[in-house]
Specification:
The protein is an alpha/beta fold. The protein has three domains: about 170 residues, Cobalamin-binding domain (Rossmann fold, 3-Layer(aba) Sandwich), CATH 3.40.50.280; about 190 residues, pyruvate-formate lyase- activating enzyme; about 150 residues, no CATH class. Helices cover about 30% and strands about 20% of the residues. It is built from 17 helices and 25 strands. Strands 4-1-5-6-7-8-9 form a seven-stranded mixed beta sheet, with helices on both faces. Helix 9 links the parallel strand 13 and strand 14.
Length: about 550
């Protein structure tokens, strides 16, 4: 069977992709497996799309590039490697392909479609989703398609049939033995000209922990390859290292390389005997592993290019909530070991703020911990906002009681297009559990942030905060805090304000475009207000005379 495997880069703007550093191991691994099973495979690497940056409609240009490959190779199945970051542009391109090649089957693999299998099939022109580990699934799928067999016997897939979405039983995850007998990634297919500076090597799969924010699908199911097989994979990857970029480093893409301390130490001992200090490797480690496994005491510092350690929260309450399995006290004990063995200059710590329960006080605790680490230990800390990716926290979003109120919202841009074939968008509201008093500038008082009368009107977005008002005062009558907030905003911010009412006693909302008074005078008169939030269109913020009152 003729198969095309595609991975698209992540878009970061209308005309630009996320810079690429790490070669995409998954697509080369699946290609190798299919070739071993006598299927004809072509690959389109993410770096091949970079040529279209700043040259017009990226999705259209990428689709044209893929369709040329489909046509020239007489492709029967195209398989996309998909994550939550590239799904939006992958979906657009799938539609283009389906319109031009209706007989070509389109399959999706990766974390995002694995978890949202029904949704991605119902909302796109894709035909099949391969859930979870794809090594066995893609072979069985190709065999079934090649011989025109029904798909009901292919484990691990979700597929469309006669307008319905059907979900077969799960495929069993690979054993260690199966992983060790899997062909090596077909890195020989890497484009000769590419920007990669990191070449991935997988030495284990899964994790022994279950952090609430984590997207790893194999939590609690860690499987580590033997030292012998790890060395074989390293030797294979090193054959192609110089074909990428000079100075390219190996990167162990394991979710937690240090889960088995003895194995991790023996891997490095073997690598040291073979290569001395000439080959450097990136690894991920856990605080608790550093404390109990004596890893740093037994790994040559010169062989570690860098080491990432996930901490996430800087206070014990947060660490417990995310099920991190460590304490702040353990973190600082590990930092002392890092310093003692001089790994402090070779590692960085990752932190997250913006968990659903976090108050400013909690966030400040994390920031204080980071400040102490940076000043006392001189260790680099990466700080990130929480991205609500598929995880336990994602499913807990139901606790926020978010409800769909209409699926027929057509905004300002829609009215300008005059294209009545377009479907409407969904509007969802946050069902907060607060006793509110909302006072508007027209003397209207209510206990809700939503005016549902607008759901049946043309301007449905106006259900948030009752359309346009120059000034709104929101009081939370049952919150245990005296904190107050001033918001300067335009209409686009109305739908965001409901997510703030759980954290403030009072919220004063101004629309600088219509407010007649001086906002600066108001702020000066309310000395108890410590927080000011700008929720305003950045394209006009420097041009709007009303907004100058805040500066």
């Amino acid at each position: 069977m003729k198969v095309l495997i595609v991975a698209l880069p992540q878009k970061i703007s209308k005309n630009q992709f996320e810079p690429l550093e790490l070669a995409p191991m998954a697509i080369y691994l699946l290609a190798s497996i299919l070739m071993k099973n006598k299927h004809e495979v072509s690959i389109i690497d993410p770096c091949e799309f970079i040529q279209y940056e700043h040259k017009g409609d990226i999705e259209e240009l990428c689709a044209q590039y893929i369709m040329k490959k489909i046509s020239s190779k007489d492709i029967q199945l195209i398989a996309f490697s998909v994550n939550s970051f590239n799904w939006s542009n992958t979906k657009v391109i799938i539609q283009r392909i389906a319109d031009n090649f209706p007989d070509v089957k389109i399959a999706l693999g990766g974390l995002h479609p694995s978890i949202f299998d029904k949704h991605v099939l119902e909302s796109s022109d894709a035909h099949i989703v391969m859930r979870g580990e794809g090594e066995k699934i893609i072979v069985n799928l190709c065999n079934a398609l090649e011989y025109n067999m029904t798909l009901e016997g292919v484990k691990g897939i979700t597929y469309k049939l006669n307008g319905n979405v059907l979900r077969n039983e799960d495929e069993i995850e690979l054993t260690v033995e199966e992983m060790e007998n899997t062909p090596y990634p077909a890195y020989e297919l890497l484009p000769s000209s590419n920007p990669y500076t990191q070449l991935p090597v997988e030495t284990s799969r899964g994790c022994r922990f279950s952090c609430a924010f984590c997207s790893i699908p194999h939590r609690r199911n860690w499987r580590g390859l033997s030292v012998e097989h790890v060395i074989k994979r390293v030797k294979h990857a090193l054959q192609f290292k110089d074909n990428i970029n000079r100075g390219t480093r190996l990167l162990f893409v394991d979710d937690c390389f240090t889960a088995n301390g003895e194995r991790a130490i023996n891997v490095f001992k073997k690598l040291h005997r073979l290569y001395g200090y000439t080959e450097k490797v990136f690894i991920e480690a856990r605080v608790t592993d550093i404390l109990k496994n004596q890893i740093l005491q037994n790994i040559p510092l010169q062989m570690v290019s860098s080491m990432q350690i996930g901490v996430e929260c800087g206070y014990n309450e947060g660490l417990k909530k995310i099920r991190k399995g460590l304490t702040v006290e353990q973190l600082f004990s590990a930092l002392e070991i890092l310093k003692q063995y001089q790994f402090d200059k070779h590692c960085f710590l990752s932190f997250i703020i913006g968990f659903p329960w976090e108050t400013m006080e909690m966030i400040n605790k994390t920031l204080d911990t980071i400040e102490l680490i940076c000043t006392k230990y001189k260790i680099v800390c990466n700080l990130n906002w929480l991205l609500l990716l598929p995880s336990d926290l994602w499913w807990e979003k139901e606790d926020f009681n978010i409800q769909e109120v209409t699926n027929d919202f057509k905004g300002t841009i829609y009215s300008k297009l005059n294209d009545y074939s377009l479907e409407g968008d969904v509007i969802k509201v946050y069902g907060y559990n607060n006793d509110l008093t909302v006072n508007y500038d027209n003397k209207k008082t209510t206990n809700s942030l939503y005016n549902m009368d607008y759901v049946d009107k043309k301007d449905k977005y106006s259900l948030f905060l009752d359309n346009l008002h120059s000034y709104i005062e929101i009081t939370n009558n049952n919150i245990d805090t005296d904190r107050e907030l001033v918001i300067a905003k335009d209409s686009y911010a109305n739908s965001f304000i409901p997510f703030l009412v759980n954290h403030y006693k009072k919220i004063y909302v101004f629309d600088p475009r219509s407010y007649k008074g001086a906002i600066s005078d108001f702020v000066n008169e309310h000395s108890n207000v410590k927080d000011v939030l700008m929720l305003y269109n950045m394209n006009t913020i420097d041009q709007d005379t009303g907004i100058n009152a805040i500066y």
